[in-house]
UniProtKB/TrEMBL annotation:
The keyword Transferase applies. It comes from Paraburkholderia bryophila. The lineage of its organism: Bacteria, Pseudomonadati, Pseudomonadota, Betaproteobacteria, Burkholderiales. InterPro entries: MobA-like_NTP_Trfase, Nucleotide-diphossugar_trans. The keyword Nucleotide-binding does not apply. Residues 9-170 form the MobA-like NTP transferase domain. CDD domains: GT_2_like_f. One of its GO terms (molecular function) is nucleotidyltransferase activity. SUPFAM superfamilies: Nucleotide-diphospho-sugar transferases. Pfam families: NTP_transf_3. Keywords: Magnesium, Nucleotidyltransferase, Transferase. PANTHER family: MOLYBDENUM COFACTOR CYTIDYLYLTRANSFERASE. This is Molybdenum cofactor cytidylyltransferase.
Amino acid sequence: MAYASLATGVLLAAGFGSRFDPEGLHNKLLARMPDGTPVAHEAAHRLLRVVTRVLAVVRPGSDALARLLNDAGCDVVFAADAERGMGASLAAGIEASDDSEGWIVALADMPRIATATIEAVAHSLDGGASLVAPFYQGQRGHPVGFGIEHRDALLRLDGDTGARALLMSQRVTRLDVDDPGILRDVDTPDDLLRI
């Protein structure tokens, strides 16, 4: 670990991935990338290179995914209200890390975010920024850093918009990065070949 952030990592892994598998038989986060690594394991591994504690938020019944993320080094949190959307899952992760001074929120279906980008978000957050996001070619991506002053707003999140409204209403410390991985997620089987 090159840099150990004071923040807690929150890895959101509670989605249903219906575009990846409309029948719901295969969890995209367990799918293997061309090198054989499961998508969620790689996303967790990169976050764990920067933060010492990562809470992986999964939905109830995702036992195989929970085991994979636990084996990767994450503490697993089951979000009872995960079906309500990303906001409810993020709130569950914040609630489970109530003692944290800040959070770096990443998505488990984004396994190609550069470790240097995660470090840059962590440095900025640890340096006093209250809301931090990386941008690539003008587009905001992940992971996003949240300071302690946003705790109550994060706990109130619900539905499928996540923290988008918070990011739109507050001043965000913008980090321009040369990292297309902040925008690339795995939504379809073809995406596994492109990441």
